[in-house]
Amino acid sequence: MTKTKLTDHELVKQFIDGEQSSFEILVNRHKDKVYTYIFLMVKNDHLANDIFQETFIKVVKSLNVGKYQENGKFVSWVIRIAHNLIIDHFRKEKQMKTCSNDEYETDIFNSQRFSDKTVEENIIQDQINSDVRKLVDHLPDEQREVILLRHFVGLSFKEIAEQTNVSINTALGRMRYALINLRKIIEERDLCLTVA
What we know:
Layout: H1 8-16, H2 20-42, H3 45-64, H4 74-92, H5 119-136, H6 141-152, H7 157-164, H8 168-188
């Protein structure tokens, strides 16, 4: 069996036992999801890269001193570390709101499920995704976080609840209110977010 077919748990165990290459496989396996989460929270490429690197430095240190317990998904644990570093960053900056970035790119919305569409449909879909992502920024912090974790990072509600230290019902409630608020914003702005 090649190393890439090993589970996260097996790779973590190998890394703790001294197999450095196992950690590289873990990083490659989860880097897109972790970076996307960080970028969506800070909306600044340079800052996202810094926090991404800091996250995995902290992951290595935590693994080396035995702070990781296998009680869920490895990637959820890594995203929690990233989340805490993001909060620390904003505390240091004395602002708890996400920073804005005029250079915002929509590359994160490219998806294989859109690959069979025409060029025009892809452009329209990208624009819709971009519009929706901008609308999400108008939500309260807790609602925005649930939307990002669910729809852009792909976590389950159970993982979101663990990530944000709330019950599953609270996470579901935040999602419900986020969707209600998004509908209100769409109606107020008279937006059309469908592909004709």
